[in-house]
Amino acid sequence: MKNIDTFEEFRYRLSKNSLLIAIFIAVSFEGLRLFDLFPTSKFIMTTTLILIAILFIIYFLMLKKVVKLLYSQLMALILIISYIIFETALVSYHKFLPIWIDFSIIIAYIIMDRRYAFLIGMYSLVGVLFIYLKGFYNVDFFSLFTLLFSILTFSILGYTISLQLSIYEKENKKQKQKLEKLVLIDELTQIFNRRAFFEISNKILKQANREHKKISVLMLDIDFFKKINDTYGHAAGDVVLKSIAQIVQKNIRENDVFARIGGEEFAILLYDVDASRSIIIAYKILESIRKSSIVYKNTPIHITISIGVYCNEFPIDENSKIKDFLFKADQALYKAKKTGRNKVVCY
């Protein structure tokens, strides 16, 4: 199953697009100044060009993922808000320039963690208050109050949006985990299914090859399982399958790969386990199942299994696949069933 972090990708794309929009706006204003459609000065035009250049650099870093996305986001937002405050302080006719801070705050809450977005909002408030108190922002108190209130309002709105996105993200992750479980877990026994066994085991084979470790594979088959279904019914067969899975899990390690790969067939991959140890484990499982008491509707059902074991004692070929190991373990299992069942046979 394709693994996609939906919300991370969403935030990454929105960050890139928002940065491009910011660059476009800055370039547009610079163009209007060049054609004398806006009052300007050489100093303001120079600072705007520097802003555009730095934003392009941040966009490149974001695109190439050279630095963490959070760092790029913080750099871009702090730079843009600082520029807005700086230009507002220097140019008397830019009284309405701070309204762009509102949009920056909304974007901050959507693309990043609420804690950092809150800091961006506080930085904006302090910046505006600073230039007002220092006499660089010549507006009446009502205009100042309106601006500060809009920053607070957009911060609350951004927080609300961010909170809803977080709730939706958590629900999305839960649904994704459920879906992954449906794809990789056998519904009846709640252990790995055939697909999961092959996917995980092939990765472990590569790891074993790198670390020069041994790999053992066990194949288990319930003896006369069809007879159980015919005698007691398929519901009894399901109880037996679940019981077998539980018993086996008690006799192997948590990091061993255990799966139901067929109707009554199971497979186990043992990492860094040699032939002698894998045979001991196989006999332990065999005895545990042989001595177990599986009861269905007050009727005890005696169960035995056959096990085929294959251990790779030599360095694993880098081209090896788990199907090759499973095939050899299956041959050993076939021999166990042909020679009386209820036994362990090593390949």
Could you walk me through the main structural features you see in this protein, from its secondary elements to its overall organization?
The structure is a single chain. The protein has 347 residues and is of the alpha+beta class. It has two domains: 6-180, no CATH class; 194-346, Alpha-Beta Plaits. 66% of the residues lie in helices and 10% in strands. It is built from eleven helices and seven strands. A five-stranded mixed β-sheet has the order 2-3-1-6-7. The chain has a two-stranded antiparallel ribbon with strand order 4-5. The two termini are 33 Å apart.
List the helices and strands and how they pair.
Elements: H1 6-34, H2 42-64, H3 69-90, H4 99-111, H5 114-133, H6 141-184, H7 194-211, E1 215-222, H8 225-232, H9 234-250, E2 257-260, E3 265-271, H10 275-291, E4 294-296, E5 299-301, E6 305-312, H11 322-338, E7 344-346
Parallel strand pairs: 6-7
Antiparallel strand pairs: 1-3, 1-6, 2-3, 4-5
Helix pairs in contact: 1-2, 1-3, 2-3, 3-4, 3-5, 4-5, 4-6, 5-6, 8-9
Tally of strands: 7
Mean pLDDT rating:
90
* Helical stretch tally: 11
Helix/strand class: alpha+beta
The shape is elongated
- The number of domains: 2
Q: Kindly provide the radius of gyration, computed on alpha-carbon positions and rounded to a whole number of angstroms.
A: 33 Å
